[in-house]
Structures are given as C-alpha cells and as structure tokens.
C-alpha cells in the first residue's frame, strides 16, 4: 500500500458510513453479492477516484468475493482518510495520496497492477493504457474491464479502431442511468458547488460560458440558469448547438464568448478548448474551471507563459495569473476537475446509481467475458433497467406495468390504426 496516514482510518470510516446512508441501491447489491458471490476468487485492479462513494463500491465488490487493488484516478480528489479506512478496516490494497505528482500517480497505477488482475475498472483509461503500453506481460490474463467516464470511452474506441485493445471493456459511462444521474444531475450540481466553494462568488447576474453541450454541459447550463446566471454555450456539434438554442441559451464561438464571460467551464473531453487566443481577450477577474476529465481542456501552459506574475493559493484551489497590463485570470484546481478538487464530487446519491451500474456490470462481465471479443461493449439494457427499478423502489416511487393486451399490441405489426 501507499497512503498518507493510516491513523486517519477512524475519520474515513465515518465518511464512508455517511455516504452509505445515501446509497441504498448499492447497499442492496452488496447484500445480493454477499449471498451469490458472483466475483468469487477474482482480483480487480481499479483506477478510480478514492472517495467515500468509491469505498462503498469496493465493499460491494468484496462482498461478491473479489479482492481489490485501488489506485487514484485523480490526485486532487483523493480523500486520505477514506484511503486509510479502506486499508485498515477492509483490507484493500490502496495506492493513493492526495496531491501526489505525475510520477507518483503512474507509480501507483503500476503498483495496483503488480499482482496481475482478472478484471480492471478505469476512470479515464490510464490504467488500461498502461496495461497496453508498459505492462504487456500481464495484459493477456485480463478477462475484461469497465470504463466510467466519457474521456476514457473516447480513448478506448480509438484503441479499438486501431486494433490495439486486447480485451473487452464495457462502457459503463454510456448507460442511460449514468448519463442522467451522474453526468447531468451530478456534475451539473457538483461543478457549480466547487466553483462557489473555491471563490465564494455570486453566480446570479454573471455570464457563464459552458464549453460543450453534452450531458454534463446540459446539466451545468440548466443549473446555472436556475441560479440566475446568463448562460452562453460553445459547441462544435450542430445538433447539440441547436438543442442549446432551442432551450433558450446563447450559442457563440469561443473566441466571441471569451470576451463576454465572467466564469468559464469546460466540459468537452478535448484539449485546448480554452487557448491563448481566448485568454488574450478575457475580462479582468474571469474565472476558469474545468469539468472535463483531464487537465488539458484549459491550456494552462499558455496561461503560465502569458503571465507576468502568478499568485498561487490565494484561496484553496485558486491560483491568480496576472497578465501584462494588470489583467487577472483566476484558475481553479490547476485546471483539473473542479468538482472533485474544490468540492466533494457528486453527492453520494448520484454515485449510488453509477456504482450500481459498475458493480452489476462487473458481475456480468465475470460470467460473460468469454463470449465477448476485444473491443468496447455496451452495458446490457437489463442492468440499466434494474438499477433504475431499484432506485425508484428506494424512493418509494411506483410506476405502471403493461397489461398482457398492451404487450401483445406493442409486439404485433398486424393492428391497424
């Protein structure tokens, strides 16, 4: 293991238990796994955010019979007390420290792989990439994996197109429940939470520029408007741009939006979405935040090159870059995920859905991996439906069911109008 302080375990247990109260679906799955043991004897290597919510996923996997080695997928999101509790109370091999550098980050991924895994869980494709580039001696024993973020799925599809992906990976990120709960409602809320915690700024009346109108961008735009902000969307996809326009949002190219925005949030999964060209025309005091996966959406190197002075840590997770002429641009969380670095990530109730998808997909993959070829696969629809059903039940919400006559009508082509 490699964690910051084992003595933090007591505080970590309190944090994990608090999250568990808001994760009834995963709790039901943990109980089911304890009875059925679908992961008996399997070793899982995971590269995920080391948070209390992830800890409850790990507990479910262990209940199913798996042993787990966990590395952090983002150094700024690691909760050192959670890491300590996972080691001390649950016997998990954890390789994660808050704020560790890039070298340490990849060292931890290698350590999680040192005992070759049967299954892998990834958040951003760094672990899978490492398996295919630096740990090729063990890649062939991996039965399959799961990927939980858009950026990772994009990278996996490219690997598959080039014939580089050597085992099946299930795009857990692409389930309807994950898109709805995690990307739209979870990121929409937690990103704004991170910005407000970091800056204590009033969003009402501000012009907020949101780069990307996918599930995350939509959630951000809806919630920013609800807080009284004027929302500007930038997009490269005509369909998504039209969707934003029809929802009443302004849509502009970034080079035009850059001069108008007070707060900028990137949510695209691509690099250099905010570049030197855009930084050059931004207002004094403009706030820059990233809600995409990696710290490449805002060109932080260009920002540093343009600065004549940098004031690091003027508030927690807030760095001020002073440009020629005295104009100041404020970067949050070093350009990394602001909702995890400056806040606490998604509420546990959100991760309940995402990790329920993850846990059930792991069990399915353990059983079905032999019939799946190398490539990117979708989560079976019945898993998505089961997670939604369990969540509704936990909320005491009931829905209608089809009558036999309705089922027969929907399955027949012979009924006229």
TrEMBL record:
Catalytic reactions of this protein: S-adenosyl-L-homocysteine + H2O = L-homocysteine + adenosine
Binding residues annotated for NAD(+), in chain numbering: 149-151, 183, 212-219, 235, 270, 291-293, 339, 346
Top class in the EC scheme: hydrolase
SUPFAM superfamilies (alphabetical): Formate/glycerate dehydrogenase catalytic domain-like (SSF52283), NAD(P)-binding Rossmann-fold domains (SSF51735)
Alphabetical list of InterPro entries matching this protein: Adenosylhomocyst_ase-like_sf, Adenosylhomocysteinase-like, Ado_hCys_hydrolase_NAD-bd, NAD(P)-bd_dom_sf, S-Ado-L-homoCys_hydrolase_CS
Subcellular location: Cytoplasm
Sequence similarity: Belongs to the adenosylhomocysteinase family.
Role summary: May play a key role in the regulation of the intracellular concentration of adenosylhomocysteine.
Name by which UniProt lists this protein: Adenosylhomocysteinase
Organism: Thermomonospora cellulosilytica
Gene encoding the protein: ahcY
């Amino acid at each position: 293991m490699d964690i910051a302080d084992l003595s933090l375990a007591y505080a970590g247990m309190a944090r994990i238990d608090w999250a568990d109260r808001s994760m009834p679906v995963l709790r039901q799955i943990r109980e089911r796994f304890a009875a059925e043991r679908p992961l008996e004897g399997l070793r899982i290597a995971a590269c995920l955010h080391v948070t209390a919510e992830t800890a409850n996923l790990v507990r479910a996997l262990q209940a199913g019979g798996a042993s787990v080695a966990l590395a952090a997928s983002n150094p700024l999101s690691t909760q050192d007390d959670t890491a300590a509790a996972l080691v001390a109370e649950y016997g998990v091999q954890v390789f994660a420290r808050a704020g560790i550098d890039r070298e340490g980050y990849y060292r931890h991924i290698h350590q999680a792989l040192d005992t070759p895994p049967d299954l892998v869980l990834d958040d951003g494709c760094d672990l899978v990439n490492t398996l295919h580039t630096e740990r090729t001696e063990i890649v062939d024993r991996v039965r399959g994996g799961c990927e939980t973020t858009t950026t990772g799925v994009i990278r996996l599809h490219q690997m598959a197109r080039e014939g580089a992906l050597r085992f099946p990976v299930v795009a857990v990120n692409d389930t309807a429940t994950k898109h709805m709960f995690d990307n739209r409602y979870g990121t929409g809320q937690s990103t704004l939470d991170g910005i407000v915690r970091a800056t204590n700024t009033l969003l009402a009346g501000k012009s907020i520029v949101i780069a990307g109108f996918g599930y995350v961008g939509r959630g951000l735009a809806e919630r920013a408007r609800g807080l009284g902000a004027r929302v500007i969307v930038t997009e490269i996809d005509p369909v998504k741009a039209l969707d934003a326009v029809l929802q009443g949002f302004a849509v502009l190219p970034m080079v035009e939006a850059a001069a108008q925005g007070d707060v900028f949030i990137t949510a695209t999964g691509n690099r250099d979405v905010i570049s030197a060209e855009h930084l050059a025309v931004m207002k004094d005091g403009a706030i820059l935040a990233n809600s995409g996966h990696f710290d490449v959406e805002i060109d932080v190197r260009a920002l540093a090159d343009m600065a004549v002075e940098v004031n690091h840590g003027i508030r927690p997770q807030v760095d001020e870059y002073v440009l020629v002429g005295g104009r100041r641009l404020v970067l949050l969380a070093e350009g990394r995920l602001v909702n995890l670095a400056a806040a606490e990530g998604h509420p546990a109730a959100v991760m309940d859905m995402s990790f329920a998808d993850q846990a059930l997909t792991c069990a399915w993959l353990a059983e079905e991996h032999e019939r799946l070829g190398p490539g990117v696969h979708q989560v079976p629809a019945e898993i998505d439906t089961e997670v939604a059903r369990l969540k509704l039940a936990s909320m005491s919400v009931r829905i209608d069911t089809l009558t036999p006559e309705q089922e027969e009508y929907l399955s027949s082509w012979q009924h006229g109008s």
